[in-house]
From TrEMBL:
Transmembrane residue ranges: 20-40, 60-78, 99-125, 131-155, 167-186, 225-243
Gene Ontology CC entries for this record: ATP-binding cassette (ABC) transporter complex
Record carries keyword Cell membrane: yes
Protein name: Transport permease protein
Topology with respect to the bilayer: Multi-pass membrane protein
């Protein structure tokens, strides 16, 4: 277990020692919160849907955590390029420990960024329905982080250059964000779009966050947690397999 801990700590220190990454990770969510949150709030209220900032904030938390966790897989490519991955892989420990340490490190970074964006949302006017709901909500933050950090590990273990990683990750991440209900309600969608949102794992993470934090559910707690957990386990298994096949 010391191997998992050390790799987890390495990923955490890498994030905390990069203030540019720390601040830059909040730029896009802050823009969405200000531009869309305040811009669409009058329209949302006129439609009888309540306060748009209350609706949008859980989606911004989910989006931030997803992007942070998924792009943690690029560290595998950095280490491969500079040779440190080779030194790690020749260590006399099972590769699954290395993969788990990296994945948990990326997931922890995602949770920390979730905390930061929650504070930013509260500055802009968001308030959870109950303060203890934040604890329940961060159960979903942790699930999103682990699920998509494992997905990032799958991508990082499969590809061999950082340019390809950015293309593939953006191709997968942005559709997941916009088809998760982060920006608009999932009810009354066309059938085809509704089916896509149901196979999007982030939809269940965002719904779980919105349900626990503000009491607005599209699915339900058991469905959200169960399906997101199953996808997370699947990504961990696939990630472990892909990481075990890396050749230096």
């Amino acid at each position: 277990m010391i191997v998992i801990y050390m790799l987890w700590l390495r990923e955490l220190k890498r994030f905390l020692r990069s203030p540019v990454q720390l601040v830059g990770s909040l730029a896009q969510p802050a823009f969405f919160l200000v531009a869309l949150g305040f811009g669409f709030n009058p329209v949302f209220e006129q439609a009888g849907r309540g306060n748009y900032m209350q609706f949008m904030a859980p989606g911004m938390i989910g989006m931030t955590v997803l992007i942070s966790a998924a792009f943690s897989g690029v560290a595998v490519l950095w280490d491969r390029q500079f040779g440190s991955l080779k030194e790690t892989l020749v260590a006399p420990v099972p590769r699954i420990y290395i993969m788990l340490g990296r994945t948990l490190g990326g997931a922890t970074v995602g949770v920390l960024q979730g905390v930061l964006i929650l504070l930013l949302c509260m500055v802009t006017g968001f308030r959870p329905q109950h303060w203890y709901a934040v604890v329940l909500g961060f159960g979903f933050v942790g699930m999103i982080s682990i699920t998509f950090a494992a997905l990032g590990m799958v991508i990082g273990s499969t590809l061999k250059d950082m340019q390809s990683f950015n293309v593939v990750a953006n191709f997968m991440v942005m559709p997941m964000v916009f088809l998760s209900g982060a920006f608009y309600p999932l009810d009354h969608l066309p059938l085809a779009l509704s089916l896509i949102t149901r196979i999007n794992p982030l939809s269940y993470g965002v719904d779980g966050l919105r349900g626990t934090l503000v009491g607005q559910w599209h699915f339900n707690y058991v469905q959200d947690m169960g399906l997101l957990g199953c996808v997370g386990v699947l990504f961990l298994i696939v990630g472990a397999y892909c990481f075990s096949k890396i050749e230096i």
